[in-house]
Each structure stands twice: as structure tokens, then as C-alpha cells.
Design brief:
Largest sheet: 6 strands, mixed
Enzyme class: oxidoreductase
Organism: Sediminispirochaeta smaragdinae (strain DSM 11293 / JCM 15392 / SEBR 4228) (Spirochaeta smaragdinae)
CATH superfamily of the largest domain: Peptide methionine sulphoxide reductase MsrA
Pfam families: PMSR, SelR
Order of helices and strands: HEEEHEHEHEEEHEEHHHHHHEEEEEEEEH
Strand order of the largest sheet: 9-8-3-5-4-10
Strand content: 15-25%
EC number: 1.8.4.11
Function: Has an important function as a repair enzyme for proteins that have been inactivated by oxidation. Catalyzes the reversible oxidation-reduction of methionine sulfoxide in proteins to methionine.
Length: about 375
């Protein structure tokens, strides 16, 4: 069973300290709903079991082309299992992750390579400190093509000589996948210090680092941080107008109904005006009547940060971009279904990329969000 001390410590932590020195408060869990916060229907999916699901989310989610990795349970017969039941080993489920990805950007074979590099494939009785069938590694395949790719990838690993012992990862038919409880989702972000202690203390971190160059991704795959976080911020800031600077860097708010995108009906995506990181899509926009652009969710939750804002007369939840750290606006809980959220965003923090220009502008991978793309 996963070390209870690590879990307890993580759940008791009320905040996470960012490299910038800011404190990001733990916010209501509904804001982080993996099943509602992102439109994932357009993406392909793959399911992997590799021991503690906390440790598989991170290496997949950091990659360009991966929309989301959801922790959960698969392989057993019991419907809607809970963590305590799965951890007991009685349900037949394994801790797993479903990876939602754009196959035109990152391939299933590349996902397999990432999987192999983050587990001990010679351990069929669990993974590292976590023992039992509920932590045994497996690749769940849903198509003939996935099975063939998984078997070929496994044979290639066996022939590589990287491991002296047999490869014991099973390749199994895909079974129903049940998302884990919300406190497990994005655990590595919500409870960074506890996660880091667990990742190292369980033995996984030292094992992975001893075999692979931790500074590189599998096959040189691009990471979101490398793509959107590698820029000269001061140079980008110098190109902003005075008001754009004050809004994104000092937290000003633009007037309602007197901003560029409050009533924009054109199809496309909205990106951070400083970094260019994708933030919102017109497919998630709605008319809120407030006079600001409003969305039910971000394109990619990994590009958004949430902070408690007590600067006004009421407590609000501020929305900031992850890589540029731009002030974008606020999120409220009075939005429409399916999220119930209203991301109220300042136009001056955004640059709009029309659907017809997304390919030329380097955002082709997000065209799948629109009807008729495939």
C-alpha cells in the first residue's frame, strides 16, 4: 500500500510555494475536476498501469501533444471502485492513467517509450515501494494496432540489453477505466513537496535517473515548458502597450463592454499576449452578459494557475497563465454546464488566433477542437 505518511502529509499541506515566491492556496477541488475541466472527446486515449499513478501523470502531462493524463483504476470487475478498495488488492484493479493525446502531434509508440522510461519493467509484483497486484505494470490495449505496437515496443526493449532481467509488463485488453478521487488528480502539482518526497523515497526517482538522462525526454519529445516557457520575457514585455503591461503584470482590470473580445463570435483560440501559450478556445466561449470574454474552461489546465485574490471587497480566485505568469482575470462558480465555471478574462491579456490562421501561426494541433476537422 502507498505510504500513508506521504498521503497524510500531502493532504494537510494548505499551500504550495512557487519558484516565484508566491503562495498558491489550495482551492476548492471542483476547480480541478479532471472529468469536467477539459473537453477531451476529440483526443485519442491510451491506458497504462505503472504503479503509483501520481508518478505516471507528470511525465505524460508535461509533453506537447498530451492534453491530459487522468489517474484512475482499471483491470478489475468492480464498478466505480474507491481508492481504499483498490489499495487493498481485492478489486482486481490496478492504479492506472488514461492519457489523452493528439496522435498527429505525438504517436502511441512515443507514449510507449515514455511509459518504459518511468517504470521498472522487470518488476511484475508491483512498482518500487508499492507492492501487490494493484501496483503491477501493464499496458491496456484497445485496438489491434495498439497491441502490435505494444508488443513490438516490448520486444525492442528486451533486445536493447538495458535490463538484465526479463520484462514482466503484461499487455492486456482494455477494460473500463474509473477516474480516481479528485485529491489524486494532478497530485504532483497540488502537493509538490510531498510528491517529491514520495517519488524519491519510493525508489522510483533514483531508479529512473540511473537509467535515463533526466534532462531529456524520450526521443527528444518537446515539453510544454520548453515550448511556451523558453522566451525572453523582458523583450516580450517591452512590446506591450502601457495598459497591457499594467493589466498583465500589475493586475489591472479593463472596463466591461469596452474591450476587444467581449463579443467576439469568430472561431479560433486565445493565447497569452506575452508567451503565446494557448489558453482558451471559442468552442468553450459563452455570452455571460458581463462585458468580458467568458469561457467554461481552459484549453489545457496545465497552462493555468489559480491564486486566492483578497484585494477587493470579496474573496476571488485569480487566473494567471502558467509560463508567462500574466494576470488574466478571475474564475467564478456561476457558469453554465458542464463545468459550472465562468472564466472571466481580460481581452488585453489575450491574442486571438482565428481558426483559419491557426496552422500558419503554429497552433495546428488545436484544430481538432473544432467540428469537421477530422
Amino acid at each position: 500500500m502507498k505510504g500513508a505518511s506521504f498521503l497524510l502529509i500531502a493532504l494537510l499541506l494548505p499551500w504550495n510555494l512557487h519558484a516565484s515566491g508566491e503562495v498558491e492556496q489550495r482551492l476548492p477541488e471542483m476547480l480541478f475536476s479532471e472529468t469536467h475541466l477539459q473537453a477531451l472527446e476529440a483526443y485519442d486515449s491510451a491506458v497504462f498501469a505503472g504503479g503509483c499513478f501520481w508518478c505516471l501523470e507528470k511525465p505524460f502531462e508535461e509533453l506537447v501533444g498530451v492534453a491530459e493524463a487522468v489517474s484512475g483504476y482499471s483491470g478489475g470487475d468492480e464498478k466505480d471502485p474507491r481508492y481504499q478498495d483498490v489499495a487493498s488488492g481485492r478489486t482486481g484493479h490496478r492504479e492506472s492513467v488514461t492519457v489523452y493525446y493528439n496522435s498527429e502531434v505525438i504517436t502511441y509508440r512515443q507514449l510507449l517509450d515514455v511509459f518504459w522510461r518511468n517504470i521498472d519493467p522487470t518488476d511484475g509484483g508491483g512498482q518500487f515501494a508499492d507492492r501487490g497486484s494493484q501496483y503491477a505494470p501493464a499496458i491496456f490495449v484497445g485496438t489491434r494496432g495498439e497491441r502490435e505496437a505494444a508488443e513490438a515496443s516490448k520486444k525492442q526493449l528486451e533486445a536493447s540489453g538495458t535490463f538484465s532481467r526479463p520484462i514482466l509488463v503484461e499487455i492486456l485488453d482494455r477494460r473500463p477505466f474509473y477516474p480516481a478521487e479528485e485529491y489524486h488528480q494532478d497530485y504532483y502539482k497540488k502537493n509538490r513537496e510531498a510528491y517529491d518526497r514520495y517519488y524519491t523515497g519510493s525508489g522510483r526517482g533514483p531508479f529512473v535517473d540511473s537509467l535515463w538522462n533526466k534532462a531529456e525526454t524520450s526521443g527528444g519529445l518537446a515539453t510544454k515548458e520548453g515550448r511556451w516557457g523558453n522566451f525572453d520575457k523582458q523583450e516580450r514585455l517591452s512590446s506591450l502597450t502601457d495598459f497591457e503591461y499594467r493589466l498583465t503584470q500589475e493586475g489591472e482590470t479593463e472596463p466591461a463592454f469596452a474591450n476587444e473580445f467581449w463579443d467576439n463570435k469568430e472561431e479560433g483560440i486565445y493565447v497569452d499576449i506575452v508567451s503565446g501559450e494557448p489558453l482558451f478556445s471559442s468552442t468553450d466561449a459563452f455570452s455571460s452578459g458581463t462585458g468580458w470574454p467568458s469561457f467554461i474552461r481552459p484549453i489545457d489546465p496545465d497552462h493555468i494557475r489559480y491564486l486566492q485574490d483578497t484585494s477587493g471587497t470579496m474573496q476571488r480566485i485569480e487566473v494567471r497563465s502558467r509560463y508567462a505568469d500574466s494576470h488574466l482575470g478571475h474564475v467564478f462558480t456561476d457558469g453554465p454546464d458542464p463545468t459550472g465555471l465562468r472564466f472571466c478574462i481580460n481581452s488585453a491579456a489575450l491574442r486571438f488566433i482565428p481558426r483559419t490562421e491557426m496552422k500558419e501561426a503554429g497552433y495546428e494541433e488545436y484544430l481538432l477542437l473544432f467540428d469537421g476537422y477530422r
